[in-house]
């Protein structure tokens, strides 16, 4: 029952009062159960979010990536925390949460992911990261993102092809990100008792996303 209560709090963000009615215990008991399970599971399962070696990434690289993004180590996306996802749609990095005023580029430079990248790695991103190209270049890391639209100037055919290729590669990555966002506890304002534990909560949502059925089927891999 404690585990079920914990999962319902993550997925549905029910109040402790609602959980108290459902489980027939006091609301303070619900709170105590939630944090107890959170701490135990975080200690045991957080290692399921790990940064794979380049050789592991290459072995799991989907066929759709190999023609254009064979060196891709991670695809990054950002809300109030940065998510790093492997080409095989496994969550490999989660940053701590940042305030709403922090830009995607600042979060990327501050969260520690740059120290995990090696020269020759390729990073894919959406349009919210234009300022990190130079930071990555300093580490010998390549960077690819869709081309920005320019006023009164159409895309060249090469730019159209690049944008389409990057967007196509990100499709299953978006599905992986959605697996985190379905946990309503992350889409609502956190109560004061949850704020000190938000990092662990984000981690557990990522762990649970990784434990779901793989997004890519076996035939998608080489």
TrEMBL record:
<dbReference type="GO" id="GO:0046872">
    <property type="term" value="F:metal ion binding"/>
</dbReference>
<feature type="domain" description="DDE Tnp4">
    <location>
        <begin position="78"/>
        <end position="210"/>
    </location>
</feature>
<keyword id="KW-0479">Metal-binding</keyword>
<protein>
    <submittedName>
        <fullName>Putative dde superfamily endonuclease</fullName>
    </submittedName>
</protein>
<keyword id="KW-0540">Nuclease</keyword>
<keyword id="KW-0255">Endonuclease</keyword>
<dbReference type="GO" id="GO:0004519">
    <property type="term" value="F:endonuclease activity"/>
</dbReference>
<dbReference type="Pfam" id="PF13359">
    <property type="entry name" value="DDE_Tnp_4"/>
</dbReference>
<keyword id="KW-0732">Signal</keyword>
<keyword id="KW-0378">Hydrolase</keyword>
<feature type="domain" description="Transposase Helix-turn-helix">
    <location>
        <begin position="1"/>
        <end position="47"/>
    </location>
</feature>
<dbReference type="InterPro" id="IPR027806">
    <property type="entry name" value="HARBI1_dom"/>
</dbReference>
<feature type="signal peptide">
    <location>
        <begin position="1"/>
        <end position="20"/>
    </location>
</feature>
<dbReference type="InterPro" id="IPR027805">
    <property type="entry name" value="Transposase_HTH_dom"/>
</dbReference>
<dbReference type="Pfam" id="PF13613">
    <property type="entry name" value="HTH_Tnp_4"/>
</dbReference>
